[in-house]
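Can anyone check this?
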Amino acid sequence: MNIAIQTSGVWMDITPQIAIGGVTWKRNDIDGPNSGRTITGTMERDRVTTKIRIDVTCILLDEDTLKNILQLIYPEYIYVRYDDPQMGQRTVWMYSNNNPATISHYDTQGNLVWKEVTFPLIEV
């Protein structure tokens, strides 16, 4: 899946930093207050809307690349362009939160390398 994030009017393609199998796409239904089971057990749905969530896992990243990605997803809201399996290519207003990263090791030049860099992209 191709993913690009807009910052300061410029699109940044983060696809090369995504691990193989490192994208999970989810459609989340947002149900209204009339949703739920009736006394007879019948499910009544009151879907108000749907929102997309993309969970991204990155390859090993050097400090500069990690810094760039974290700065891309830091603003409260961001534009994300991605290949949606249901709708085709979309550009969506999203946010990200809870962005863990784990120190992996120092490379042969003494530069810090990070692993387990993951973050969600959640439709507003």
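Reply from J.R.: I decoded it. The CA atoms of residues 27 and 52 lie 5 Å apart.
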